[in-house]
């Protein structure tokens, strides 16, 4: 919360009128009461939420209850696909960055790495080499360590929890595929659809694959953690709906109004004309 307060200072110093930006701090126990009070207020015309899918569903239902539109950017289980002709060094670096940047606590984090079976061993060696050289600083709570450890221990079968559940931590799944068709099926095998990556030397093939992925964004030869102010940002399926970014963000918070001026005689409004 301290960071939010610090961010608000330059905004207010720039001349934003008092009361336009408001920061409300509350305990977890009071969340339901505070959310209901905010959404039900007649002055609130739209709800914007960024966070987990579980909480997003609660907020979406509450917004619908009061007839308020909602813009939601929720969870993700982002896949990174590596084709056999990809630059494996760049792909491994992107995978490591996407999976472990900010301890994996990014909605666009790379959580599923899907690699062509003919290069999966070479790719894995490069990825593991990067991971071994990564400096990890203390800070994780015992409960978080226990959660991630249990997911890793469970990741021994096709129905492993970590394949479908957003971990929001520094851990990712590495699987091999036999065909591009299988790679697409694996990438789409998720309730989420926020961001995805494809690594290949064949850009035309990458674009063709991108069109078949259920994802709000697909980045070719780049990490899944990729967002810029001039690009539309948002997800599909359980990753939410609506888009941020210029001009899409302006459109989300703009009410469309129709104004018409008749160009015909007012007498034409009569249902029955006198003969």
Automatic annotation (TrEMBL):
Protein name, as recorded: Putative salicylaldehyde dehydrogenase protein
Domain called Aldehyde dehydrogenase: residue spans: 9-142, 151-259
Protein family: Belongs to the aldehyde dehydrogenase family.
Pfam families in UniProt: Aldedh
PANTHER family cross-referenced by the UniProt entry: BENZALDEHYDE DEHYDROGENASE YFMT
GO MF annotations, alphabetized: oxidoreductase activity, acting on the aldehyde or oxo group of donors, NAD or NADP as acceptor
Keywords from the named record: NAD
Species: Phaeoacremonium minimum (strain UCR-PA7) (Esca disease fungus)
Keyword NAD annotated: yes
The keyword NAD appears for this protein: yes
């Amino acid at each position: 919360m301290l960071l939010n307060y610090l961010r608000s200072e330059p905004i207010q110093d720039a001349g934003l009128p008092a009361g336009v930006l408001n920061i409300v701090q509350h305990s977890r126990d009071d969340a339901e009461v505070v959310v209901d009070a905010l959404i039900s207020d007649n002055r609130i015309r739209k709800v914007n939420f960024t966070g987990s899918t579980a909480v997003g569903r609660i907020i979406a239902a509450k917004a619908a209850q009061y007839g308020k539109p909602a813009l939601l950017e929720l969870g993700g289980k982002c896949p990174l696909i590596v084709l056999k002709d990809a630059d494996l060094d760049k792909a491994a670096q992107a995978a490591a960055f996407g999976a472990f940047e900010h301890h994996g606590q990014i909605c666009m984090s790379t959580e599923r790495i899907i690699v062509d079976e003919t290069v999966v061993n070479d790719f894995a060696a490069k990825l593991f080499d990067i991971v071994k050289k990564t400096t990890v600083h203390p800070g994780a709570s015992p409960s978080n360590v226990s959660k991630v450890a249990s997911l890793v221990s469970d990741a021994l079968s096709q129905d492993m929890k970590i394949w479908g559940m957003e971990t929001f931590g520094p851990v990712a799944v590495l699987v091999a595929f036999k065909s591009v068709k299988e790679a697409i099926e694996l990438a789409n095998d998720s309730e989420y659809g926020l961001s995805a990556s494809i690594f290949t030397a064949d850009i035309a093939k990458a674009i063709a694959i991108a069109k078949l992925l259920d994802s709000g964004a697909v980045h070719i030869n780049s990490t899944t953690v990729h967002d810029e102010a001039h690009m539309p940002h948002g997800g599909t399926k359980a990753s939410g709906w609506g888009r941020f970014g210029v001009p899409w963000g302006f459109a989300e918070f703009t009410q469309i109004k129709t104004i018409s001026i008749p160009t015909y005689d007012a007498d034409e409004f009569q249902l029955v004309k006198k003969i």
